[in-house]
Specification:
Belongs to the UQCRH/QCR6 family. The chain is mostly helical and about 100 residues long. It is built from three helices and two strands.
Length: about 100
């Protein structure tokens, strides 16, 4: 039914075909947050990096020591492996919070 509607046609205060439309019935609203919202992701990621991903941390630190000693190269791959481990640990904890 919506495929045959002309562009910018409006039904029930919704725009069809995801094209911009204007409704004069909309009123501005103000949302007041009762408390400051704190993103739990940095704290949870840090916990995961320091507890569940110690092997990744050890590999990364060993690479940093080698690079510092040899004065060439980088540890990007080891760092990404460490972050991947942390994100794998973090994801279920973070999504569990969104279900509340």
């Amino acid at each position: 039914q919506w495929q045959t509607a002309p562009p910018f046609q409006q039904r029930d205060n919704h725009c069809l075909l995801l094209l911009p439309c204007v409704s004069l019935r909309l009123q501005p609203t103000t949302v007041i947050m009762p408390e400051e919202v704190v993103d739990p992701m940095p704290r949870l990621r840090k916990e995961c990096m320091e507890t569940q991903c110690m092997t990744g941390k050890e590999n990364y630190n060993a690479c940093v020591d080698r690079i510092t000693k040899n004065k060439f190269g980088d540890c990007e791959a080891w760092y990404h492996d460490w972050l991947k481990c942390a994100d794998k640990c973090l994801a279920p904890k973070l999504f569990a919070l969104t279900k509340e």
